[in-house]
What we know:
- The protein has 3 domains: 85 residues, no CATH class; 246 residues, 2-Layer Sandwich (Endonuclease, Chain A); 165 residues, Endonuclease, Chain A (2-Layer Sandwich).
- Helix content is 47%, strand content 17%.
- The chain has 20 helices and 17 strands.
- Helix 9 runs parallel beside helix 10.
- About 1% of the residues have low confidence.
Amino acid sequence: xxxxxxxxxxxxxxxxxxVLLQVIWLLLISWGMSSLSAPVTMTADILSILLVLWIVNxxxxxxxxxxxxxxxxxLPVFGMVVYLLFGESRVAxxxxxxxxxxxxEIENYFRENDKVREKIEALDEGISNQSAYIRxxxxxxxxxxxxTRYYPLGEAMFLDMLEDLKRAKHFIFLEYFIIxxxxxxxxxxxxxxxxxxxxxxVRLIYDDMGCVTTLPHRYYKKLQAKGxxxxxxxxxxxxxxxxxxxxxxxxxxxxxxxTGYTGGINLADEYINEEIRFGHWKDTGIxxxxxxxxxxxxxxxQMWSIITGVRTHIPAYSPYVFHTEEFESDxxxxxxxxxxxxxxxxxxxxxxxxxxxxxxxxxxxxxxxxIDNEMMMALCLAAxxxxxxxxxTPGIPDKKMxxxxxxxxxxxxxxxxVRVYEYTPGFVHSKTFVCDDExxxxxxxNLDYRSLYLHFECGVWMYQSQAVREAKEDMExxxxxxxxxxxxxxxxxxIFVRGIQSIMRLIAPLL
Length: 511
């Protein structure tokens, strides 16, 4: 009974209940309109057709167009209203303006080193072109003089994070989608409180939707009382509006400008297997030490300015402000961000570039495999060319219906020669690509529509770095723990399951 009362009184329940009421209200209006006079229904039909024509002629993903077209034509009033609320990846105007202002402000001193570019071009012009895309469209430069370490599990990265946090002397920046009170977060918070007392500048951003069930309402005020500068991204309000679509899905930790972490690992106990929810939790992360951390620092400060409206003198936080000696080189690294404000699907295009230019193999770890036609064709074509394409997905899903949707893509991939595996010990949350012993990217970007089109995301593109080799070794060590999916498994699904999968495939871009 207590659990039921706690659920009903929770902020999450109130939010879902309020939004559900608004959806029902819209459906009732749609039904009511259809029963009115012929001129009214004809007007609604004409407006819906005009909206569909406008959507069809937009430069957006065809799957997205199809899903919205069907909804609007079947339920004209409801479809039109919902599209106006959720159909675009727009973010709040104020947020966009603040972001543009920060980008212009940092442009003069956030430039790429010409010698680094010349060096990678001399090694491989095609790979240099992949990096140049990130520089030109995500606006994050390539770096050398950065060492890398790849973590095959969250618990290993957590231990190093604690040690690096204890060594912080000047500033600590954290930006996370999920924070949940428990061993992991409490251990970090204890260090943060001590560092504040030592005069360290500690700032934290968390996504309010990501933490809606894991943190108390206005938790940032509690942290501010402890001296931690804290802001919640896009606070959850129980009303239907387009801003709900855009979440800060990044995971970033920066210490003193020269040490940085990112990857799939949030600050909650399941990510370090202290809490077992879906079997063994397989996640990955990356530690950078050196010049490449500058990109993560700028990414954080840009988001800080967007949320708080408070500008920071960004050059004061560059890697060499608190580290005077030259950093060691370990290949090339390029941390990059993706956001709904740049009108460019950077995250997906980084993945597509890796797949399309692969010569020997591409190994992929992803929790969700909900892909558009471009990604499907790239994976299938690579396999048909003889590239060894392998994809690892969860064996125990966190969301059963989403997993059912993931499995609906298996057959076409396997028929083209892609090998698909499910991680039998539990859940895979890793977002890792590794290719040809040369290139890898580790970050927060899932293979689903939300990550690729609507969320603020980040990753680290690497070439000839130690972490590339370590990611390959991790993939090879993980595959024996997986069950390879056969074509026979796909063909033997019953007609009911296939029917559900077909419907979900149709509306996948809207989920």
